[in-house]
């Protein structure tokens, strides 16, 4: 999960811009980065799981939707989470407890998303590949960020 958050965080950071043109450039860059991640993930999954073109074509829309929903879920805790990570000394006890509740809820909701989306892949992949899919996706995220550290 931490690896997925890194991917989502980097995508978020790439979308900034102050002027309308900068926002457009940021949005274009965000879209380009997202497409790059998805293309690399597609190739990685094909290689690591020995997927056929048909399997990966059927699988990627499901995984892309899962990643989009994870990103939206992560964004819902972004503001308070950033303050906690930065060690903001002005955080109140109530804010810290709120953050804890948000993070616990986040983990539960993310697990529910994974269950829903990975089970949707049953009709696409044989069981041996499906069982390895979550581990291979996490391995991809870890390797991607190791290569693209700032």
**Beta-strand segment tally:** 0
Helix content estimate: over 70%
Low-confidence stretches are 12-20
The helix/strand class is: mainly alpha
Radius of gyration from CA coordinates: 17 Å
Counting structural domains, the number is 1
The end-to-end distance, rounded to whole angstroms, is 20 Å
Question: Hey, roughly how much beta strand do the residues contain?
Answer: under 5%
* Individual helix count: 6
Shape: globular
Main β-sheet, in a few words? none
Question: Could you walk me through the main structural features you see in this protein, from its secondary elements to its overall organization?
Answer:
81% of the residues lie in helices and 0% in strands. The protein has 150 residues and is mostly helical. The protein has one domain (2-147). The chain is globular. It comes from Porphyromonas pasteri. Keywords: Signal. Residues 1-22 form the signal peptide. This is Periplasmic heavy metal sensor.
